[in-house]
Amino acid sequence: MLPVDQYDRAERPTTPMSVHSSRLPAATVPGTAPASLATAVSFPTLIRPRGTRPTHAPAWNPQRPSSMPHQRYEPIHERVDLPGIDPSARSWPTRRVDTAPLWVPVDLRDGNQALREPMDTPRKRTMFDLFVAMGFKEIEIGYPSASQTDFDFVRHLVEDDAIPPDVTVVVFTPARRDLIERTFESIAGIPSNDGMPRVVVHLYVATAPVWRQVVLGRDRADLLALARDAGGHMARLAEAPHCPDVRFQFSPEVFNATEPDFALEICNAFTELWDACPQRPVIHNLPATVEISTPNIYADQIEYMHRNLDRRDSVILSVHPHNDRGTGVACAELALLAGAQRIEGCLFGNGERTGNVDLVTLALNLYSQGVNPMIDFSDIDVIRETVEHCNRMPVHPRHPYGGELAYTAFSGTHQDAISKGLAHHAARATELAAPAGRAPWAVPYLPIDPADVGRTYEALIRVNSQSGKGGIAHLLNLHHGLQLPRSLQVDFARVAQQAADRDGRELMPKELWEMFQTRYLAPVHDGPVTLSAWRTTETAAGEHEFTAELSISGIETSAKATGNGPLAALTALLAGVGVEAEIVAYSEHAMERGGTSLATAYVQVSRNGTDSWGAGQDTSVLTASVNAVIAAVNRLPR
Ligand SMILES: CC(=O)SCCNC(=O)CCNC(=O)[C@H](O)C(C)(C)COP(=O)(O)OP(=O)(O)OC[C@H]1O[C@@H](n2cnc3c(N)ncnc32)[C@H](O)[C@@H]1OP(=O)(O)O
Ligand SMILES: CC(C)C(=O)C(=O)O
């Protein structure tokens, strides 16, 4: 339970209760007194007992918003002294990203260390192969000194010769000599590629004040000494004759909560210690290990480092945002504007607590701006399913770009816009004589063409009580080739919406089709008119005769009438037997789908100001039209 009582109530802002008193609801908590100004239910009593399911919404309580102890949290400016960041020297707010950074998936290390069940070798291998297939050129493969499994996986990749020549692998180590040695042991035997190292050894040490004091028990000077010792040990191990050619990476853990001058000092120390040069640059990776500020602050911190790091041309400036505030993607994007060249993250944002920054979102955000992300996302569902398998964790259906519902609209106006947008896109492609998959994309509500990431258009529009005529008609068109006239769309949408509303669920295309058939296409058995046999003849130019054997309310009869077309003759015939109806709308089309030569006709008839629709399908347009007239007439109220 939140420690509400240890904070002084008097300090909490007061709510102007009299202003809101008329809006106080009656009690919504069963068994409690009505909520009123005098007896407002206190916050703790509204919390359901642990382990039980909520059965009601808590009653509105004017005191509640003020009862959380926000005073115990310090803003970043009070936690970290940010000297040296000159606001007038900021360039990131006006820059744009026009090339992809170096992407480094860290799922096999940072993602893996956050899993309930860390990956075994087969799962790690599946994920590694996915990264390679997607085109990642640098991949963090583990923390080899953490466990035998981690060590064995690195050995597995080496011994199976699974690392392609153009891929560099990264192994992660803390600043402890024994663990550094184990890390070097794990990478034995990885050859260079044309004189270029294919291994990065990544050293980390926490530099932020709280970590220095609480976790490591070292002041700045002590920590620098620890770091230098570890870095020096790495440099010596790298010089051993049997050691593969390596590059070095350093991460000042919790960079974003570290005094910028200290972060700079320690990074510069490594640049010098490892003798970084443009041919063999050092990677300085600046993690927002725990996200604590708005992204603009992180951008300032990155720009400060970008401007002040020694031997800038010998440093690859990397970032490693986490997502504690839900702004990991924004931090990474602003960091790129501020001078970062490399981004570490995980696919779909797995990682410690609320995750590492999501590389899928970052890369496809760039793609949606016309920038080549240099990574292949053309089958996003295979990528998602592979990641779900390896992590044993589902991806949220609303996850950007890859979630099951990322391109789906349930709401009527969105569906209408998407449906019009797709038609417009197809027309534009024809106009430009370009394949639809290459024509410029401008479809409302869809930032990218779902087809680009391997999605079909089938799931774009799904129908429930929030949907409108456009979406419903789109589905009938997509799945059954129907091209409903606008006013029939309105008529049918009413029926479909009522059904969706009544059942409180989604209506599948098959159900919509069955509803359409029942309502408009099927013969109306209890309707007054049944045609048993009929024929038409053109008796003169512009004159048609309709002859029929029919039953009117169960009474068999035969009749004949003429009109200026077969349908006009039919309505004249019906009028002659006492069934008045005027045709007010008519359309028909050949069925485009299903490989049949069926035609569908739609007819709207009217009697005494009341309208009704019917539809007919047949290989003959005339038969389809006659059936549509009879269906519409039989649906008129009697
Ligand atoms: C932000 C990050 O993601 S950092 C990476 C975190 N990942 C992991 O921790 C997963 C793998 N870790 C492990 O398997 C284990 O923690 C090991 C093998 C590395 C170490 O295990 P243990 O020796 O049992 O130590 P333990 O897990 O308690 O680690 C804490 C110790 O490491 C020290 N430490 C923490 N960070 C570092 C560092 N970067 N360099 C050196 N020592 C460090 C702590 O001060 C503490 O030391 P103490 O025991 O002297 O107080
Ligand atoms: C890069 C390292 C140290 C890391 O995983 C982090 O800080 O989150």
From TrEMBL:
<dbReference type="GO" id="GO:0000287">
    <property type="term" value="F:magnesium ion binding"/>
</dbReference>
<comment type="pathway">
    <text>Amino-acid biosynthesis; L-leucine biosynthesis; L-leucine from 3-methyl-2-oxobutanoate: step 1/4.</text>
</comment>
<feature type="binding site">
    <location>
        <position position="320"/>
    </location>
    <ligand>
        <name>Mg(2+)</name>
    </ligand>
</feature>
<dbReference type="GO" id="GO:0005737">
    <property type="term" value="C:cytoplasm"/>
</dbReference>
<keyword id="KW-0479">Metal-binding</keyword>
<feature type="binding site">
    <location>
        <position position="322"/>
    </location>
    <ligand>
        <name>Mg(2+)</name>
    </ligand>
</feature>
<feature type="region of interest" description="Disordered">
    <location>
        <begin position="1"/>
        <end position="30"/>
    </location>
</feature>
<keyword id="KW-0963">Cytoplasm</keyword>
<dbReference type="InterPro" id="IPR013709">
    <property type="entry name" value="2-isopropylmalate_synth_dimer"/>
</dbReference>
<dbReference type="InterPro" id="IPR054692">
    <property type="entry name" value="LeuA-like_post-cat"/>
</dbReference>
<dbReference type="GO" id="GO:0009098">
    <property type="term" value="P:L-leucine biosynthetic process"/>
</dbReference>
<feature type="binding site">
    <location>
        <position position="110"/>
    </location>
    <ligand>
        <name>Mg(2+)</name>
    </ligand>
</feature>
<keyword id="KW-0012">Acyltransferase</keyword>
<feature type="compositionally biased region" description="Basic and acidic residues">
    <location>
        <begin position="1"/>
        <end position="12"/>
    </location>
</feature>
<feature type="binding site">
    <location>
        <position position="356"/>
    </location>
    <ligand>
        <name>Mg(2+)</name>
    </ligand>
</feature>
<keyword id="KW-0432">Leucine biosynthesis</keyword>
<keyword id="KW-0100">Branched-chain amino acid biosynthesis</keyword>
<dbReference type="GO" id="GO:0003852">
    <property type="term" value="F:2-isopropylmalate synthase activity"/>
</dbReference>
<protein>
    <recommendedName>
        <fullName>2-isopropylmalate synthase</fullName>
        <ecNumber>2.3.3.13</ecNumber>
    </recommendedName>
</protein>
<comment type="function">
    <text>Catalyzes the condensation of the acetyl group of acetyl-CoA with 3-methyl-2-oxobutanoate (2-ketoisovalerate) to form 3-carboxy-3-hydroxy-4-methylpentanoate (2-isopropylmalate).</text>
</comment>
<feature type="region of interest" description="Regulatory domain">
    <location>
        <begin position="523"/>
        <end position="638"/>
    </location>
</feature>
<dbReference type="InterPro" id="IPR000891">
    <property type="entry name" value="PYR_CT"/>
</dbReference>
<keyword id="KW-0460">Magnesium</keyword>
<dbReference type="InterPro" id="IPR036230">
    <property type="entry name" value="LeuA_allosteric_dom_sf"/>
</dbReference>
<dbReference type="InterPro" id="IPR005668">
    <property type="entry name" value="IPM_Synthase"/>
</dbReference>
<keyword id="KW-0808">Transferase</keyword>
<dbReference type="Pfam" id="PF00682">
    <property type="entry name" value="HMGL-like"/>
</dbReference>
<feature type="domain" description="Pyruvate carboxyltransferase">
    <location>
        <begin position="101"/>
        <end position="381"/>
    </location>
</feature>
<dbReference type="InterPro" id="IPR039371">
    <property type="entry name" value="LeuA_N_DRE-TIM"/>
</dbReference>
<feature type="region of interest" description="Disordered">
    <location>
        <begin position="44"/>
        <end position="70"/>
    </location>
</feature>
<keyword id="KW-0028">Amino-acid biosynthesis</keyword>
<dbReference type="InterPro" id="IPR013785">
    <property type="entry name" value="Aldolase_TIM"/>
</dbReference>
<dbReference type="GO" id="GO:0003985">
    <property type="term" value="F:acetyl-CoA C-acetyltransferase activity"/>
</dbReference>
<dbReference type="Pfam" id="PF22615">
    <property type="entry name" value="IPMS_D2"/>
</dbReference>
<dbReference type="InterPro" id="IPR002034">
    <property type="entry name" value="AIPM/Hcit_synth_CS"/>
</dbReference>
<dbReference type="Pfam" id="PF08502">
    <property type="entry name" value="LeuA_dimer"/>
</dbReference>
<comment type="similarity">
    <text>Belongs to the alpha-IPM synthase/homocitrate synthase family. LeuA type 2 subfamily.</text>
</comment>
<comment type="subunit">
    <text>Homodimer.</text>
</comment>
